[in-house]
Amino acid sequence: MSTPVVWLLGDQDAGALVGASLQSATGVAALAWAVLSAPRGPSGADAADEAHRTGAAEARDGGRAQSGVRRPRGRGGRRARAVRTGSATATGPDSVANSGIEPG
């Protein structure tokens, strides 16, 4: 910020003025981008784990099929919601399928 001020208050030839203007505009644009791209919505305990309109999932031979919400350990305090999830099918020993909400 000090360089454009020195250029404008010192020798004001065309090159210095253009350079100061570009540097200032870049700083303002970067600040605007940072403010406008900041994440919005709930975070932390207010956030929810959600699944909406998922497709079908199938697990075989010890696999895991998940078309709903599987919550990682330690995140049990958050809200969870599963809406119109697809079917989940498990075939074979030790296979697991879930189309709703599964605690971690």
From TrEMBL:
Basic and acidic residues biased stretches: 49-63
Region of interest (Disordered), ranges: 39-104
Superkingdom: Bacteria
Biased composition (Basic residues): 70-82
Residue stretches of biased makeup (Low complexity): 83-92
Protein name: MFS transporter
